[in-house]
Amino acid sequence: MKNYRTNRQRITALLLSLACILCTAGCTDKGPDSEISSAETSGKSSEASADEVNEESPDLDLSFPEETEPFELPELSDEIPADAVTKVTITTEYRDEITTVSIEYRNDHDDPVLIINVGSDGEETVDENLRYEYNDKGDPTYKYDLEDYQLSETYYEYDDKGREINVKNVDDGIISWEVKYKYDEYDNIILEDSSYYKTGTDELLSNVVSDYSDCDYDDNGNRLAVRSYTASGALFRTEKYTYDSENRILTEITISENTENGSYKRSETHREYDPASGKECRTEDISYNPDGSVYNTMLYEREFDSSGRLVHVTSTYKDDETENVTKTTYEYEEL
After folding, report:
1. In whole angstroms, how large is the CA radius of gyration of the chain?
2. φ/ψ (deg, to 5) at 251
3. What is the C-alpha end-to-end distance of the chain, expressed in Å?
4. Which residues fall within 8 angstroms of residue 286, CB to CB, at 6 or more apart?
């Protein structure tokens, strides 16, 4: 049997309590010890009594606040959204085995609005429902991303120059993280202020501020070097860049330093661009051990169609013991 009182019982108890309070106030014994306090408060008591006589007594609010409803996750839908214009079938080839892994329905911004996973037995299962809002420049201002275990909503804010200055993420109706940006005169990020919240609450868990203001630039405003420091002022990371004639990044070198023992870890990224589309067609990531030897490499090679859409990605992972190659194919069908 549930252990609670009905609203009628609660109201009755409240009225009885009020009656007891009024009775006690009227029967207070004013002995010698209370003479001073009675005199000090007599004016205030008289005013209250006059108000009670002259003014109509306010209605008592005997209602009880309703309990906050728990967040209810919406159900996934397999219905193709009205704004879907393209169907994309994605297959992978690994060790001569070709598998269809997912199907995406995309809007006219080429953003997915419905993602369907395809199992090894060919069974299709809805993975995500997505929707977006855009500003006049076509930049997203809101993203709705529903999966079978969570609803993630992301809000984007831009300045007058169209630069992203604030991104806030809300999971299941509660803030999860927020990032704010500041820029230099060349539109490079110089300050990144990140706040992270405890899961399921709005309690701030941590705040990380990354300062990129100590930079070297070329004549075109491209950053050649970025130095980052700890709160105590010690250098802990250096980033170095090179660019092509169109100001696109060709190489990015990151050196993480440990000032206590002199160790470091270096990583490099090398990029190449497709002459027709201008998109990045080759990316090689190289990670190094503290002793300077190569830890692993990851190579991505991309092919595009005449419309600039991605059609093939070949991913090659390599370390001292293994080499794995996966080829992903994208097939487009207009709806």
Report:
1. 32
2. -135, 145
3. 58
4. 267, 268, 269, 270, 294, 296, 297
Residue pLDDT, tens place only, 152-187: 999 999 999 999 999 999 999 999 999 999 999 999
Where exactly are the structural domains of the chain?
A: 150-211, 213-335
Query: Residue with structure tokens 């070297």?
Result: 216
127 CB-near residues (< 8 Å, 6+ apart): 102, 115, 116, 117, 147, 148
Q: How far is CA 171 from CA 114, 151, 153, 168, 269, in A?
A: 19, 6, 6, 10, 33
CA distance 13 to 34: 31
Angstrom distance (rounded) from CA 102 to CA 116 = 6
The residue to which tokens 């609005």 are assigned: 113
- Do the bridges between strand 112-118 and strand 264-273 make them parallel or antiparallel, or are there none, so unpaired? unpaired
Do the Cβ atoms of 335 and 86 come closer than 8 Å? yes
Give the span between the Cα atoms of 64 and 318, in whole angstroms: 64
pLDDT confidence tier of residue 83, bands split at 50, 70 and 90: very high
The label of the residue with tokens 């005013």 reads 47
Which CATH code for domain 213-335? 2.40.128
Do the Cβ atoms of 321 and 300 come closer than 8 Å? no
Q: Tell me how far apart the alpha carbons of residues 277 and 304 are, in angstroms, rounded to a whole number.
A: 8
Q: Is 20 left (phi over 0), alpha (psi -120 to 50) or beta?
A: alpha
**Paired tokens of 160:** 């007058």
Mean pLDDT of the chain: 84
Average pLDDT over residues 285-300: 93
Residue 3's pLDDT band (cuts 50, 70, 90): very low
Mapped onto helix, strand or coil, the DSSP state of residue 65 is coil
